[in-house]
């Protein structure tokens, strides 16, 4: 969604072309991300001739302020939906930054890893908006990601396993 | 206007920006080097939105107020006290990721 997409595109801005192909996953209810991504990739294609990317939509795991119980149900549904997608894409690296969409994708990837099908490196970058507290996705993926990056020192102090590189977006 | 795809043009021609505490709005404004007054409304906002506004205020990059103190703030503000906001460094992330993945 919006802010998350802008942030993740900034994170991608300095990555080399070795990070290819890029598979973007976002919520089906998200109307604006596709345009932002296409614009980013179009600019990228001006510098890197063999730029490849795909766009993939999954059901939204959770609406803002959705109740706990219904969130578990909708997230389970999103996980079921993203399992075949993750299986198809078999990513080497998953980069996510906090929207509800990332939890089902990461959980699917973890399952695939447990089943010995494909082990992906999961890198989570908490949003720059998060200065003192983690987002719900962050709280969950703090335990399940391989690398958990925060952008403010207060979070690094609270979450010892996190990595602080300063502001990166 | 209600929504625009990008506020970049408006931001560039502005002398002062008064905004809600949305991260995108704050960061885009600060990156354009424009003075920013952030209006927070604790009753409407997600709690976490305040975190960034508070931190930016603590670091001296923005002025903060709420709806009822806005006029007073605009009348008495001293924009020269605002500190420039250095850009983020995605290149640091790229370096980090290259090491993690083994692309050195």
UniProtKB/TrEMBL annotation, chain A:
Gene Ontology terms, MF aspect: N-acetylglucosaminyldiphosphodolichol N-acetylglucosaminyltransferase activity
Keyword entries, A-Z: Endoplasmic reticulum, Membrane, Transferase, Transmembrane, Transmembrane helix
Membrane topology note: Single-pass membrane protein
UniProt xrefs under InterPro entries: Oligosacch_biosynth_Alg14
Pfam families according to UniProt: Alg14
Superkingdom to which the source organism belongs: Eukaryota
Main location: endoplasmic reticulum
Signal peptide residue numbers: none
Single Gene Ontology BP annotation: dolichol-linked oligosaccharide biosynthetic process
Any one of the GO CC terms: UDP-N-acetylglucosamine transferase complex
Record bears the keyword Nucleotide-binding: no
Parts of the chain that traverse the membrane: 67-86, 98-117
Family: Belongs to the ALG14 family.
Assembly, per entry: Forms with ALG13 the active heterodimeric UDP-N-acetylglucosamine transferase complex.
Protein name: UDP-N-acetylglucosamine transferase subunit ALG14
Gene that encodes it: Alg14
TrEMBL record, chain B:
Gene3D superfamilies (alphabetical): Glycogen Phosphorylase B
Gene Ontology cellular-component annotations: endoplasmic reticulum
Glycosyl transferase family 28 C-terminal domain segment(s): 1-86
EC class of the enzyme, as a word: transferase
InterPro entries from the UniProt entry: Alg13-like, Glyco_trans_28_C
Enzyme Commission (EC) number: 2.4.1.141
Organism superkingdom: Eukaryota
Molecular-function GO terms, alphabetical: N-acetylglucosaminyldiphosphodolichol N-acetylglucosaminyltransferase activity
GO BP: dolichol-linked oligosaccharide biosynthetic process
Location within or outside the cell: Endoplasmic reticulum
Alphabetical UniProt keywords: Endoplasmic reticulum, Glycosyltransferase, Transferase
Record family assignment: Belongs to the glycosyltransferase 28 family.
Name by which UniProt lists this protein: UDP-N-acetylglucosamine transferase subunit ALG13
């Amino acid at each position: 969604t919006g802010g998350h997409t802008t942030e993740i595109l900034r994170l991608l801005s300095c990555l080399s072309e070795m990070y290819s192909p890029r598979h973007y996953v976002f919520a089906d209810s998200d109307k604006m991300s596709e345009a932002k991504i296409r614009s980013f990739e179009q600019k990228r294609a001006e510098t890197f001739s063999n730029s490849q990317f795909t766009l993939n939509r999954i059901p939204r795991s959770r609406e803002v302020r959705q109740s706990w119980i219904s969130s578990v149900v909708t997230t389970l549904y999103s996980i079921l939906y993203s399992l075949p997608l993750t299986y198809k894409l078999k990513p080497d690296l998953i980069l996510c930054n906090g929207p509800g969409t990332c939890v089902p994708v990461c959980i699917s990837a973890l399952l695939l890893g447990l089943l010995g099908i494909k082990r992906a490196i999961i890198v989570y970058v908490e949003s720059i908006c998060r200065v003192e507290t983690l987002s719900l996705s962050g709280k969950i993926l703090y335990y399940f990601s391989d690398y958990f990056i925060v952008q403010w020192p207060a979070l690094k102090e609270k979450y010892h396993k996190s990595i602080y590189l300063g502001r990166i977006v | 206007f209600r929504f625009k795809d990008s506020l970049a043009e408006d931001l560039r021609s502005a002398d002062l920006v008064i905004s809600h505490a949305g991260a995108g709005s704050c960061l885009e404004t600060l990156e354009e080097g424009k003075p920013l007054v952030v209006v927070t409304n604790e009753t409407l906002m997600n709690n976490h939105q305040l975190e960034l506004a508070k931190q930016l205020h603590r670091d001296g990059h923005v002025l903060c107020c709420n709806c009822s103190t806005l006029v007073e703030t605009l009348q008495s503000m001293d924009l020269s006290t605002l500190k420039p906001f250095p850009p983020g460094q995605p290149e640091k992330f790229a370096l980090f990721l290259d090491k993690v993945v083994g692309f050195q």
